[in-house]
Specification:
Elements lengths: L7 H12 L5 H8 L3 H13 L19 E9 L5 H8 L5 E6 L6 E7 L2 H12 L4 E8 L8 H10 L2
Antiparallel strand pairs: 1-3, 1-4, 2-3
Helix pairs in contact: 1-6, 2-3
């Protein structure tokens, strides 16, 4: 499929869906003064083009007791062990993000934990994976920016 062209209506639909993925198409249609069928067709086309990939739910981890965030850089004995290590990291539910990286670390992870003691246990789980040489941890004091819309608007403005 060729490059999918988004117009201003598509941008506005995406803007509302990023705010709330559960917003009814009828509400979007009313705000944009178009039919709900038009919204449905446009969303379907964006899904088929791979621009929209599923939908997600945002949880308040603090309210669930998981307010501690740390980033763990993982050093491997050999880069050939990357796939194996990533598979083992994937088995640790408290690792919410993992990137294979260039530079200082072979793998860079984000973990969520209940507290420092729990974070230590999670970090030790990563350390204990065969092929992990060592880890380096940075504690997040505050997530200051987490804004999907700024990037989306910048992309749309450059189209």
């Amino acid at each position: 499929m060729g490059k999918f062209k988004l117009d201003e209506i598509d941008h506005q639909i995406l803007d509302m869906l990023i705010d709330n993925t559960r917003v009814p198409f009828t509400d979007i249609a009313k705000k944009l003064v178009i039919s709900a069928g038009t919204v449905h067709v446009r969303v379907k086309k964006m899904e088929e083009a791979g621009i929209i990939k599923g939908s997600s739910l945002t949880l308040d981890y603090k309210k669930l007791g998981y307010s501690f965030i740390a980033y763990v850089g993982v050093f491997l004995n050999k880069t050939s062990q990357t796939k194996f290590v990533i598979e083992r990291i994937n088995e640790i539910p408290f690792v919410t993000v993992a990137h294979i990286t260039t530079g200082k670390f072979n793998v860079f992870c984000k973990i969520r934990a209940r507290n420092t003691e729990h974070a230590k246990d999670v970090i030790f789980m990563i350390d204990d994976i065969e092929g992990v040489y060592r880890t380096e941890t940075m504690i997040s004091l505050e997530e200051s920016i987490n804004d999907k819309k700024r990037l989306m608007h910048s992309i749309f403005n450059n189209m």
